[in-house]
Amino acid sequence: MEPLKNFVNKTVIEAYASELEKQLKGFDSTKFKNLILTKAWEQRKLMDRIHHVAESIQLATKGSFDEIVEGLEKAAPNLPSGFEQIIFPAYIKLFGLEHYDRSLRALEHLTQYSTGEFAIRPFLKAYPDKTMGQMLKWSKHKNEHLRRFSSEGSRPRLPWGGNLPDFIKDPSLILPILENLRNDDSLYVRKSVANNLNDISKDHSDLVLEIAARWQKEHQKHTDWIIKHALRSLLKKPHPKALELFGYGKPSSLLVGAFSISKTSPKMGEAFQFNFNLENSSDVLQKIRVEYVIDFKKKRGSAEKVFQISEFELGAASSKEFSEKHSFQELSTRKHYPGKHAISIRLNGAIKDRIEFELISDYK
After folding, report:
1. 43 is in which domain, residue-wise?
2. Among 50, 251, 281, 363, which residue is least crowded by beta carbons within 10 Å?
3. What's the burial of 113, exposed, middle or buried (CB within 10 Å: 0-12/13-18/19+)?
4. What pairs with residue 275 in β-bridges?
């Protein structure tokens, strides 16, 4: 998969230089490109690239904050909409905190061409009540990008955006926004609502479970989908009340048999296959959540990771066979270490069988 940082590349920088030269009085496009495209460019990580480009706009332009922002607003519609345009909100993040009203007007405009969730974080920390009041208004906006912005920007634990400690402690300012968006027609918005609730559930599980139970009773068009995705961390935990909310009963009558793995000593970078049978030994139909859990060897100690296989209903005295694969390919989000590992099968939150294996580092 192409690293996300590569979306902010030389071609993008040249396109931005050309457009900003048209829209920004006092902008030096040659200086802008020379500041950015140095030997250090390739080594810069994603957010470092974005901030560096935003800083270079400031260094390559003669003009006030208001003049520069006006130029960015004029340029945005003439550039491809998408992730790359996060550069413009990043400028607001770095230089706009002392220009509150103008900055929020700019973010309202610019986020419609990309996303402003990273840029709003300093404003939420410095002016939480005032900024959340504006975001509540955006949650009712006709533009889906702004509605999504109101939720995504206020997430307590936004990846790459940093945590909001006060919101982690007390998420009450977020909840009216999520209530406004709980049945939004846009999947783009609903995913953000689910992610926000999932963040909140890590510190306030009872609160999120109460919201989920209430929304479930309403049974509106889109709320069931949001609830399921919002409780994904609690389901993986596994939290008994979350399992109960979705009808996953006690797993005592669910059995696992013929559990096996294709390699007892897989090599790093390889995959192995595992097989098992699942049986509902009861005399009633059962709703079942099937997961496997790998106990990974880490640099220090170990850590479990839960992977969902399936969810379905299984009739009384019935069985089902499974054949699955797991890869030990290196990922940017997961580093593997050689040593003793284990794989377990989990049904409705209960571990039913476990096999240990040795992950080895020899690729030969």
Report:
1. 4-245
2. 363
3. buried
4. 260, 323
pTM of the model: 0.90
Sign of the C-alpha dihedral computed for residues 330, 334, 335 and 338 taken in this order? negative
> Contact at 8 Å (CB) between 321 and 263?
no
239-245 long-range contacts, CB within 8 A, separation 24+ = 239/205, 239/209, 240/349, 241/205, 241/209, 242/209, 242/212, 243/289, 243/348, 243/349, 245/209, 245/212, 245/213, 245/216
- Tell me the residue type at 33: K
Tens of pLDDT, residue by residue over 254-306, are 999 999 999 999 999 999 999 999 999 999 999 999 999 999 999 899 999 99
Tell me which of 245, 262, 288 is where a domain ends: 245
Retrieve residue 18's tokens: 């050309």
- Which tens digits make up the pLDDT trace of 99-109? 999 999 999 99
Q: Looking at 215-267, which runs of residues are DSSP E strands?
A: 254-261
How many of the other CB atoms lie within 10 Å of CB of 3?
A: 9
Residue 305 lies in a domain: yes
Report CA Rg, the chain: 25
**Which strand (E) or helix (H) includes residue 190?**
helix 187-201
The CATH number linked to 346 is 2.60.40.10
